[in-house]
Structure formats: C-alpha cells, structure tokens
Amino acid sequence: MSLAVAKPRSAGRQILDATILIACVTGMVRLLLVGRDLALSSRLGTSDAVDAFLVASALPLFLVSVLTSAFAGAVIPSVIRVRESEGQQASLRMLGNLATIAGLVLALVSLLVALAAPLYVPWIGGEFSPEKTRLTLQLQVLLAPMLVAGGIAGILKAGLNAEKRFFWTALSPAAPALGSLGFFLLLEPVYGIHSMAWGLLAGATLEAILLATILRRLGLRIPIALDLTSPAAREVGRHFVPILAGALLMGMTTFVNQMMAARLDSGSVAALNYANKIITLPQGIAVTALGMAVVPFLSQMAARRDFTALQSTIRQGLRGVFAVSVPGTLLLIAFSTPIVRLVFERGLFSAQDTELVARVQSCFALQIPFYMASIFVVRAISALQINRLLVMGSAINLAVNITLNLLLVRVLGVAGIALSTSCVYLVSFLFLYGNVRRHLARLPQNLEAAA
Fold it and tell me: Residue 302, exposed/middle/buried by CB under 10 A (0-12, 13-18, 19+)?
C-alpha cells in the first residue's frame, strides 16, 4: 500500500486562495465603511459640513494610502530577500528599524501639514465660503497626526504580508472604520462633523497598536531600532523613493478632481465622493485582495530569478482580471441609478442627488478593469524592482488627467471629472504593461539560464 504524496499547489492557485481569503475579509471591512457613509449621508446629506470633512480628510487619507502602498512595494521584496539570505531575525530587525525611521519622519511631516494648513486649505477649497473654509481648516489640523499612526501601520502590514499572514493585514483597516463610525453615531449630535474626524484619528492609532500586538502574538517580535546606515534600510530607501514619487503623482489626480469639483456647483465634491464610494466598494475589495496576495509570490519568483514563472503568472492574472471585471462593470453601469437610490436616497439625500450621483458613478465605473489590471502590473514592477517606471507613468497620467478634466468638465460637469479618471487608468495600464513586457523580454527566462 503506497501513500499518495500531495502535490504542491501552483503559485497561481496559492495566489487565488489568498485573494479569496483577503477579498472576504476586506468585504467585511468595506461594509463598515459603507455603514459609515450611510450614516454620514443620512444625517448630513450633501451639506457644507460633508464637503469640508471630505476635503480635509483627503490629504491625510491620501498620504496614508500612498505610504501603505509604497511600503508594500519597497519593503516586501527586500524583507523576503533578507529573510531568505540572512534569516528571520535579520528581517525582523530590518522591519523594526524601518518602523522607527518612518515614525520619526512622519511625526515631522504631520507637524508640517498642520502648520501649513492655513496656506493650502483656502486654495484647495476653491469657492468655499469663509465659514466653510474655517471648518475645513479645523478638521485638517485635527486629522494631521493620522500620518504617524498610518505610516507605522503600513510598515507592520508589509511585515505581515511578507510572511503571507494575509488575514490580519486585511482585517486591520476595520479599526479606523469602526472608530469613525462609532464616534460619529455617538457624538455627532454634540460635536457635529468633528466627531467623525476624532473617530478616524482614534481608529488609525488603534490599528497600529493592534498590528504590533498581532505580530508579537505570532512570534514575530519587532525590536525598536534606529540605524540610518543599515544596508537593508538604504536598499528599501532606494526603491521607496521612486514608488512614493510615482504614487504621489498618481494620487494627485484625486486632489485635482477634488479642487475642480470644489469650483463647480455646491454639493459637487460630495456627489463625486459618494459616486466613487460605490465604485470603490467592489473595486477596493478586489484590488486590495489581489494586490496584497500577489506581492510575496511575485517577489519570491523575482528573488529566485524565475522569470518564466513570473511572466506566466502575470499573463494568467491579467486574463482573470479582465474576465471578471468587464462583465461586472457593465452590470454596474446598467443598474447605476437603482443602486444609488437603494444605498443613499434617504434623509436629506434627495432624488435629484440620486440622479447626479448615478451619472457620475457610471463614468467612474469605466475605470474598473483597467484599474485592477494596473494594480497587478504595478505589483510586478515592484517585485522586479524597476520602480522608475512608476514615476514616468504617473507623470503622464497626471498630465492626461488635468487635460481631460479641463475638456470634459465643460461638457459633462462633475461627471466629466469621473470620465477623465477612467481614461487615466486606461493610459496607465497600457504604458506600464507595455514596459513590463519589454523588460521581461530582455531577461533570462528561467533559473538555469540566469545561472
């Protein structure tokens, strides 16, 4: 009697399994965010307070998102390389050093964001009234410390992701969601929109604490250290800078959109954000799951110089992305108005608001296939450590976004901003994927050839 030996799962199957797990957990977290937005829209509609909060929170949320993405792209490949060459403890020391450096640098950045707020908030707010501008300024200063907690959480997430501990990485954003929702429901009658900002800040701090606790419980104790001369820290810095620069340039499209919407009719900023919330629910789940799952596998293939497997995984992944996202996009566009009516039309959110948000949402939906495909390609770029492409691509995208916004907003109003964003992600995908294919074509196609 012979015992059957279980065949090891392929990288594609492991990525799929991890993607499904992360998608399920991320879906639960996104539902909390939907609950928060429902509470916000029901109590405050598209009021000036909502516009002020969305504009004030845009910068810290954007920077935290950019830092988390940049840390994932720069830290995970380096952590995996150090772990395989020098051992687990060396990789943990590296993470501790990076978290300490990030905390100190971001504390300074947070202070600068708060001090400079009176200079840039009136400019971002555009046609905001003086009272609305003062409220936006108050909220901006209040939310500035989020950068410290969010940045440290980003480093800790990268460490968990490198260890393929996907569940906790996907679950941790529930802390900011619960914090902002809980504070708003309990304190909004007394403190108004400020309660949402306090909750967001408290939740971000709690997320960093929970991640550190989880790492310690898993036996991955990260020591506090500060060594600016560490070779590993310098390596991460070399890759972090172009990833961060690219993400900042690409993320500036959000600020361009917010500023242009602020110069349109009252409620345009809120309409743009409500429409994007519905799009980012399915898209955010899929992108977070796919992006988080694929990084350690592609990084391991690149570290082992198995470029044949890496190229095959990219092709299979993109086929899967388009096969799922295109039909989903068409359905979302077809049922845009009923979805907005079901989700938002209550309280001060009127039928006229529904019509506007549904139109904007349909234009936003066109981005979904190309956004998801671009994320997959971006993770491959990080694994291959050719991050200069991200800076070039993001600069092109920003120029395209500004140009198309100026053209389309005259014809479609705030919906033109959403359509411009969808076009930007199409351009992004074509540019990045074309360059990745050319780069891989120049590399040895298997481990033996590389040797």
Answer: buried
Measured over the CA atoms of residue 83, residue 89, residue 90 and residue 94, the dihedral's sign is: positive
> Do 177 and 281 touch, CB atoms closer than 8 A?
no
Sign of dihedral through CA atoms 277, 174, 18, 82?
positive
Q: Position 265: which residue type?
A: D
Token code pair at residue 422: 């969808």
DSSP for 177-212? HHHHHHHHHHHHHHHTTHHHHHHHHHHHHHHHHHHH
Distances (CA, A) of 408 to 246, 366, 419: 25, 15, 8
Tokens of 25: 């957990």
Mean pLDDT in residue range 216-221:
79
3-state class percentages of the chain: helix first, strand second, coil last, to nearest 5 = 85, 0, 15
Integer CA distances (angstroms), 260 to 12, 50, 117, 362, in order? 42, 17, 19, 19
Is 44 within 8 Å of 38 (Cβ atoms)?
no
Of 447 and 70, the one with more pLDDT: 70
Which segment of 87-96, 143-152, 233-242, 404-413 scores lowest on mean pLDDT? 233-242
